[in-house]
Amino acid sequence: MTQEQGIAALKAGDFTAAISHFEAAAKADPGNGAIRYDLAQALRHGGREGDAIIQATNALARDPQHNPAARLLTYLLSYLRLRNPGSIDPVGLAAAFTFINVDHQILATTALSYLKQCTGLGDALYLGKTSGWDAAVRWLLSSKGKTVLRDPLLRTTLSAAANNDIDIERLLTALRKTLLMAPSHEALRKAHILEFATVLVRQSEINEYVFAVSGEEQQRLDELFVNPKGIAEGSRAASESLLLKALYTPLWSLLGEHANDTEQWTVSPRKWGDFINAHLDERRRIAEAAQGVECLGSIADDVSQNVARLYEQNPYPRWLSLHAPSVSARRHSLADYFSEKELAFMEAPYRVLIAGAGTGQQAVDAALGYGTGAALTAIDLSLASLAYANRMAALFDADNVRFVQCDILNANLLDGDFDVIESIGVLHHMDDPWAGWKALIEKLRPGGLMKIGLYSRAARATIASLRTDIQSKALGDDEQVIRNYRQGIIDEDEAGKGGFLLQSADFFSLSNFRDLMFHVSEQHVSIPEIASFMTDNDLSFHGFQMPLDIPEGYPEGDSLLDLERWHAFEDTHPDSFKGMYVFWCCKT
Ligand SMILES: C[S@@+](CC[C@H](N)C(=O)[O-])C[C@H]1O[C@@H](n2cnc3c(N)ncnc32)[C@H](O)[C@@H]1O
What we know:
Layout: H1 2-12, H2 15-28, H3 33-45, H4 49-62, H5 67-77, H6 90-96, H7 104-118, H8 120-131, H9 133-141, H10 146-150, H11 152-160, H12 166-181, H13 191-206, H14 215-223, H15 228-232, H16 236-246, H17 251-255, H18 270-291, E1 294-295, H19 302-313, H20 329-334, E2 350-355, H21 361-370, E3 374-380, H22 383-395, E4 401-405, E5 418-424, H23 433-441, E6 444-454, H24 461-472, H25 479-492, H26 510-517, H27 527-536, E7 539-544, H28 563-572, E8 581-587
Parallel strand pairs: 1-4, 2-3, 2-5, 3-4, 5-6
Antiparallel strand pairs: 6-8, 7-8
Helix pairs in contact: 1-2, 1-3, 2-3, 3-4, 4-5, 4-6, 6-7, 6-11, 7-8, 7-11, 8-9, 8-12, 9-12, 11-13, 18-22
The protein binds S-adenosylmethionine.
């Protein structure tokens, strides 16, 4: 009865009454996840978002299949950081990671701060900071550290998202080294350590082996021999050597031609075997998905060729989950920028182009958000990126998007015009971003909508100066160079010139960090340049996508579309668009 009363109060907008009814219902039926979810919704609408987060984890702890609770939890965490994560239910938080339609990276931030504050992981980190990371690892591998290495939330988090905590990275880097250097793989003989080492292999795969590798480790790795025959014959020593090497290098590359065997590997211990089979299976699925990518024109431009080479080797970003939008989401958000009349075309079937789709996160999000009324074409230079994108589109049942390997400079080869074109974080990697933008305008029908993302010269100034340092030292951009450069930043900590990068989500995986600091081709633009290009090319400006942390005082109301005012604002707040400028415009 009280739950129904709560629902009625929620519908009527009486959130205080709804909260009391749901609290009473939860007391009467403490194991019921649905009631906790209703309570979380009432708390959220009543302005108590922190409590709503806690109740969403309670709902999931009682009903791990409750997808709406996982979506609500992730949505709230996307803009709110809990001051006291100690109140969340770790079982519920871990359950949220089982859904791919919520952003695991957002959950990871809360999970790691919970683990640091409320579990033995905090003790290990404290020991690391006070007595050194080797001491912390000894503690972790002793009986005292058992509960940490067995912690289901820690294992789940590190298996689903890139770690984004610098002290945890220091601890895991030291742990990995100890496991590698231990005589005769002795640590791996304990089941919980071996299982955690498998988690660490997965974490390394997710962060693309971003942790620093010392000379000593490299020497040991060179001495370790991968013996696929021994592994297949059930040799435990051979399978342990593979595991240790897989902490540093992708499994498929270690197994060479054996990675293509379609037969399942029977490996001792079995859990490690399951991991190898899942890894190779996913690799095969991505290779199959490459077959579904079309190819149009040739890549002739020098810069396009260099950029293609970069992304063939390092598809970016390597996303694993997505806060999948609802079907009407795009139309709803476009209403902030365009009139009903300008959006009327969405009533009939329409066409969308995603230019520079990369690994498909933006394209899959768009395919789901525009819905089945839209037919999407997603182009990119990199086949490896598009293969990954195609695989992910299948995972999300986004079957209204086709992937085409095509240079933006060849966009004229695509059939017909588009009603909407999106190109985010792409044009600034071209030799001439304006020529790229023009090629896209040619493919937009009059009255069509365009979303563009470009690096801001003002916001990238500090990064540009670090990039100039890197280029003047002619360091190159191989993985070891990037790892060493990154480790230099970690060693200097917050006080160093690159200390601000430790706060960047892009710091914590190799391809993201490469994209941030070591890109082969990067240009920056200013608001006046954008304004004058739009005037010359019959585009009208419809507004910036507002960065979440934009400083107070930005142009609002009548000035919202005044680019001169925006330029003046950016002059005094140069970090405003530190991600990039992202804005909507319309072809007049
Ligand atoms: C930084 S990624 C951005 C991917 C995606 N838009 C996103 O936001 O996740 C840049 C992508 O642009 C692609 N790209 C760069 N120049 C291009 C060109 N001339 N034609 C097509 N794609 C291009 C690259 O291959 C790469 O995948």
